Amino acid sequence: MPFPIKVCVACSEEFELRPDKPGFANRCPECSVSDESETETKLGRGADERKAESEVNEARRRAIRDLLYRKDS
């Protein structure tokens, strides 16, 4: 049984859609690989960035908690 032939939305090249192909079903393997490497670089954050983000989230949670549970006086 042959694999279906698809057209890549990024580069308009035809490719066979195989079950073990990485990435999206509407992109060829070459375009999918470049997307995976971009997402990996976005996920790599340093300790300073993670700490700053956690502090911002804590302040956000505190503000929401204060708004929800403050007594009307």
Automatic annotation (TrEMBL):
<protein>
    <submittedName>
        <fullName>Uncharacterized protein</fullName>
    </submittedName>
</protein>
<feature type="compositionally biased region" description="Basic and acidic residues">
    <location>
        <begin position="39"/>
        <end position="57"/>
    </location>
</feature>
<feature type="region of interest" description="Disordered">
    <location>
        <begin position="34"/>
        <end position="57"/>
    </location>
</feature>
